[in-house]
Amino acid sequence: MKLLFIENRHKTYFFEAIANQLKEKGHSIYWLVQNKQFLPSSNFKTHIIDYPSEKIKEFEKDKDVEGVIESDRQLNHFKKTDTYYFYYYSDKIENYLKELKPDFVFGEATAFHELLTIYNCKKLGILYLNPSTCRFPAGRFSFYKYDTLEPYYGSGEILDEKNAVKIIDEIVNRQIAPDYMKPISVSRKHKIKDKILKMYSYFNGEKFNTPHPFFKFKVEQQKKKNIKMWDNKATKEVEKNSFFKVLYPLQMQPEANIDVWGKKYRNQQNLIQEIYEALPPKTILYIKPNPKSKYELTEELISYIYKNERIKMLHHSIKMKAILPKIDLVVTVTGTIAIECILSNKPIVTLIETINNLAKNCIYIENLKDDLKDVVSNIEAKKFNFLDKQEKIAFLNILSSTSYKGKVSDPYTDKTSIFKENIDNLVFAFNSIIKPNE
Description:
globular, 2 domains, 13 strands, 13% strand, alpha/beta, Rossmann fold, 438 residues, 16 helices
């Protein structure tokens, strides 16, 4: 099989460890590289896209390319204004895909060149797969098709009742967390080295995924101010009163979970306003910040929430475990909280349809204005559907059977991701979807 991997900074070396074993199994391995500072080894056939030397004066706009532009973190957070290079890279990627004709393309769905590759793979009928954590059960991942949360194949593994009940209890009692939520330990030395590498990369032409160091510094300083401002205005408890209580947990940005998979709702200030206006009058909307808050916390968002009496900011120090029992309904776009709510029978609404909506107590709504009030009414009338023990086990087994054993990360944030045992698990999974009938 002809397999193409897409460079993604440090993630490149994680994929490279997998690619080395797949090459030994007889597969032809190719790489498409945007950032020259993160090259895989010379063992592979690597295609490097040259940085554009001058602006393209004329190009025909394409709605799909413009869609990629909408998700770009450089434009959304780091004051970049040029968009010409999206069309330059899209042409280069399309031509390379036509020439190579890979059987599979593997990469993330985060950086602009990956999203452009996904767009061109769709156009050319080439399967692009994004290996990413399935959140629960922990230590597992799924291959997601293109830029969606739709799993491709799966191990088919079914948990026995004893193990399933144990995992459900651990999730409900928040005794375990998804792999991506576990603490990251990077030494100061490695952080400095990484910053120097990114600066070197920027000043050598990679200005498309790498922000200007000055703007990056300013944005980081503003982020710290915003977090402090949020907590100064935030409450440390959910009030005891007769109001119906709704929780919206902010999703961290930039992050594919909302910027790509939940792109329709990537402006979370607008979304909070939509939710607020769709709720009945005797309702309080609580906003919980992400524990790793980044650029989703803005001065404008804080000001909007603070001006509305029935919207409350929750302090960063408050744990979800203390909040959830006091909440009547949770609303999320694509958050992990959906799985936790499903298994703890906490009413949950999602704004993007995913595999989680196969559970009858996880409601997908297309129209906030028309549908959210109905959900609230059903909960108040005690007409909301809940899962029994066997239904919870069945749902957990959907997640298990559509995923594979293995941890998807990168050696910069998690050295264990390239340990032999983990890579062996990943290679087994990769090979099983490359040759699904064997």
